[in-house]
Each structure stands twice: as C-alpha cells, then as structure tokens.
Amino acid sequence: xxxxxxxxxxxxxxxxxxxxxxxxxxxxxxxxxxxxxxxxxxxxxxxxxxxxxxxxxxxxxxxxxxxxxxxxxxxxxxxxxxxxxxxxxxxxxxxxxxxxxxxxxxxxxxxxxxxxxxxxxxxxxxxxxxxxxxxxxxxxxxxxxxxxxxxxxxxxxxxxxxxxxxxxxxxxxxxxxxxxxxxxxxxxxxxxxxxxxxxxx
Length: 201
Prior knowledge:
Mean pLDDT: 87
InterPro entries: CheY-like_superfamily (IPR011006), Sig_transdc_resp-reg_C-effctor (IPR016032), Sig_transdc_resp-reg_receiver (IPR001789), Tscrpt_reg_LuxR_C (IPR000792), WalR-like (IPR039420)
Structural class: alpha/beta
Pfam family, one: Response_reg
Domain Response regulatory: 3-119
Order of helices and strands: EHEHEHEHEHEHHHHH
Number of strands: 6
Keywords: DNA-binding, Phosphoprotein
Radius of gyration: 18 Å
Shape: elongated
Protein name: Two-component system response regulator DesR
Strand order of the largest sheet: 2-1-3-4-5-6
Number of helices: 10
C-alpha cells in the first residue's frame, strides 16, 4: 500500500483528490493539509511514501516544503501538482529535488499513475512541460536575488526583508535593483511580474 500525504489549500479540490486516490486499491491517503507549514509536521507524523503538494499554498511555498521533506523525511518522495505549467516552475521544482511534476488539469488516472511512479523511484514529469523546459531560458537571477524578490512579491518592504535575512537595508536594495536590471523590468513590480510569468518565483 502506498501511503500519501495530500497538501492542497482548496477544500473541494483536496477532498476530490483524496477521494480519487482512495479509490485505488494500492493507494491510501494518510494525511491531508491545507497550508504549507503543516506539510513537514504531517510528514514526520505519518511517514508517507509520497507527498502530493500544490505549489501555491498559504504560509509556505509548496516547493520550499518539498525541499524540507527531502532533507527531513528522505524516504518520502514528492509529487508537485499545479496549474502553473511554466518551464521556469518545473526548473524550480527539479532543483528542489522533487520526484514528479504534473498539471492539475491532467486526467485523474494520470495522478494515480504518477503517485505509483514516484513511489517506485521514477521521476515523473508532464511530457509537454518537459519539452518546453528543455528549450526555455535559464533564470538570470541568483538564489539570493530570487529569495529577496519573492519576499518583495509577498508584500514585504526592504526593511522587513533586511531584518528577516540579517542583511543591511542597502544590500537588500541592491539585490532588488539588480533583479530589475537583469529582468529588464521597468520597476520592481514589473520585475516581479516577469519573474512570475517565467515561473522563477
């Protein structure tokens, strides 16, 4: 029996996914969570074989949670389920050591097969998205620049970002300015838009 942790913030979708997976004779949903910061505690408590995680979750990004699982519960593989079918998002997912990445509009049987695939140790990636990612542009930002820009996208001002990351205010402003320049944005909001559309945030 493959034990699954399911992380999805929309109650109706989460319920439907759990019901679909529990219909499979070899899959059992052992935990359901709605927020990103609930994923690791649930994984430590239930020790699932596969965590099916939506990227866009409140309180903690799904990919950040997947990275935590990779380090703290290495026996649990992660399958990212999202409607953000962008090459940059796939690149982020793969760098977070996820085992699979499929789109929410995939047929229901593809989800069950993807769970089985990652549980067996295979990497499962939506075919069309993999082809698109192969020829996509690499993100020009450093990991720190992405982190700072993501915090700005979440509504934090430079002073808060500096405090959270133990950086000087000037350093944070430099990261933001460099990000705008690298992304050829008109301003910070435009840079955030460009990075989001590319799937880099």
